[in-house]
Amino acid sequence: MKSDKARASDKYHVYTGIIHIHSTFSDGTRPIPEIAQIANELGDVHFLLITDHNTLRGKKEGFEGWYGKVLVGVGTEINDKDDRNHYLAFNIDKEFGPEYSAEEYVNQVDAMGGLGFIAHPDESRSYIRQYPPYPWTLWNSDRFHGIEIWNQMSEWMEGLTHFNKFWRILHPRRSIISPKPQTLERWDQLNLQRKVVGIGGVDAHGFLHRLIGGFAIRVFRYKVSFRTIRTHILSEAAITPDTDYQEALQEVYAALRAGRCFISHAYLGSAVDFSFWAQNQHGSATLGETLPFEQNTEFSIHLPKKAKAFLIYNGRKIDEQIGTDIRFAAQGKGIYRLEVTVDDRPWIYSNHIRLQ
Ligand SMILES: [Zn+2]
Ligand SMILES: [Zn+2]
């Protein structure tokens, strides 16, 4: 059957990753092997990308590699001297301290063949004085490769008020609702100019929060964070624990660079079986890919369970349907992405398919 042939799993291998994790090499609360063990126990996570602040110690000291069925890669989260412009950089060997400007590290990571994503781009929280917001300011650069469209810790902290904090502490996963609308809008606008990949990050620290009197409470243990925002890649090659870990990491980075990825909130169910394709007489294209436009271009969507899919064309919602196997007609040249909700809760965000 044609629709079945179009599934991502027929051409690509889908792997689930957790991106943006802090270990004891910066302000996280567990060492990398323990973090990897936690992911291993979950059983449905294939890779972790560690990003400690301004250091690559995890990589330099040999902590990259396979831990059971989980692949661990080490990048870094760089910031400038004002602690702004947090940048997740992967596939580099150079460490950047806060003496570098955002423009310098964005350009250098790109020049070195690295991969860089803007972290929590529109952060604006104000409730807890000791955790100020760290928004991005260098928007005129065209040398970053992507942005974190959904950051679990950032959203959780941002929504915190005096009145809801107890509920949010008791229900950390239910408190995670959606990316910020202004970030999604910005992401679409950027993609009208050039490909800017969207990823999801957890920003896991396993932090202790001292919010209730003198009690310290670990709101997002690593295990809890790892069951929220996930980034799934479509890999050209099969990646197994038999694969050389450096080759495996290059596959992960290649998929992320290409935008062959989508984001899900695992609290609402497994998204692994999601696919989104465009097809016409020229062929087919999936996430991050481009297809020449012609009038009869059709999108095929497969959802892992019955849910509502919204087609976003050049930043505007133009169509919606409920089901598991859905088709939409393309309306013209431009960029198309998909948002999927379950019971009105955002569940899946795809990267863009381009029709040119
Ligand atoms: Zn940060
Ligand atoms: Zn972080």
Could you give a short description of this structure?
The chain is 22% helix and 35% strand. It is α+β, with helices and mostly antiparallel strands.
Describe the fold and architecture.
The strands form 2 sheets. The protein has an 18-stranded mixed beta sheet that branches. Strand 1 (13-21), helix 3 (32-42) and strand 2 form a beta-alpha-beta unit. The chain is 22% helix and 35% strand. The chain has 2 domains: 11-268, Metal-dependent hydrolases (TIM Barrel, Alpha-Beta Barrel), CATH 3.20.20.140; 275-355, Immunoglobulins (Immunoglobulin-like, Sandwich), CATH 2.60.40.10. It is globular, with a radius of gyration of 20 Å. The chain has helices spanning 2-5, 8-11, 32-42, 57-60, 102-111, 152-158, 165-170, 181-193, 222-225, 245-258, and strands spanning 13-21, 47-53, 65-67, 70-78, 87-90, 115-118, 146-151, 197-201, 209-212, 215-217, 229-235, 261-265, 275-280, 283-286, 290-291, 298-313, 316-329, 334-342, 345-350, 353-355. The structure holds zinc ion (2 copies). Residues 20, 22, 77, 119, 203 line the site of one zinc ion (ZN).
